[in-house]
Amino acid sequence: MTAHTPSMSEHEYKEAKFFQTFGSVPTPGFADPAEQTSVWGRPWGCSNDVGKLRAVLMHRPGDEVNIVENKPMLETGGFGDPEKGWYWMGKTLPDLPAMQAAHDRFTALLRSEGVDVILVDKAAPGAMKQIYCRDSVISVKGGAIVTRLARKVRRGEELPVTQALAKVGCPILGTVHGEGVFEGGGFALIDDKTAVCALSVACNEEGVRQVERILNGLGIELIKLPMPGYRIHIDGSFNMIDHETAIININELPYFFIEYLNKRGMKLIELPPEDNAFSLNCLAIAPGRVIMHETRTPRLAERLDKAGIEVLTIDYECVELGGGGIHCSTGPLARDPG
């Protein structure tokens, strides 16, 4: 009888049999609704920008706004302190009680529409723009990407946003890091396979590269729009309001992108020149159903009505004075796929 070395110990054999019996289960995939509900408590993420809105991240403005002082900047027409990094774009100083009242009306309207409003508990110190939650998080199939905000006054908003997402169990699929910067106002989902983003002072090449890597892993193509000058985001230029329907500012979008939208047969509602720019900064809460500020022109109202778009209105001007509107104030975390 030939002597030999055992191929494994009895313990190793039994351990191998355990993991043979209870093996890896990669399917259903991470974003499968039943899998998400079982592991993460509910289906998270967005595969489009117009499906029924189920959950949204928001922040009620608070004492952080009080960092704004009466320091006019004549060349910009607003207020700011370049050394400290804060700025306020309105011609009048912020009215915090009015902002809180407007925000309360907005969240009440969303809740009446069946939306789960998830609030960031407390702003980062001095983060007087924390209300604009759109910029600090983007939602894709299966979860969220935490961004890295570009401007000094906004750096730090990422932590309370991350804490709010963790508190409710929303998966974080990635965080923009290194020297990348990316803000959610520079991002939109056209459909479940196509997204578009700004390439701008607020969304640099490295930030775009990191976001694109995550999107490509989900089978999503990213179209990049070089923004003119110091234009930071695309949600003042392009906003999906129904399947294959968008409201656009033709003066701020590159020709190749307008042609792309036309070739795919998208219905484009052009913002009239006399209209308030924040009319475009609206929020789809279901296909063809949007929340928009009250101060839109009759010409835009007629175009929306002709396209079959139902509009719910709120007074949001006191918040818009800070440089962001209805769309900017919301970070969608869950939408229906259709």
TrEMBL record:
Position of the signal peptide: none
SUPFAM superfamilies (alphabetical): Pentein
Keywords: Plasmid
Coiled coil spans: none
Catalytic activity of the protein: L-arginine + H2O = L-citrulline + NH4(+)
Entry GO MF terms: arginine deiminase activity
The protein's Enzyme Commission number: 3.5.3.6
Keyword S-adenosyl-L-methionine: no
The UniProt record lists the keyword Protein biosynthesis: no
GO biological process: L-arginine deiminase pathway
Uppermost EC category: hydrolase
Pathway: Amino-acid degradation; L-arginine degradation via ADI pathway; carbamoyl phosphate from L-arginine: step 1/2
Entry-linked PANTHER family: ARGININE DEIMINASE
Protein name in the entry: arginine deiminase
Organism lineage: Bacteria, Pseudomonadati, Pseudomonadota, Alphaproteobacteria, Hyphomicrobiales
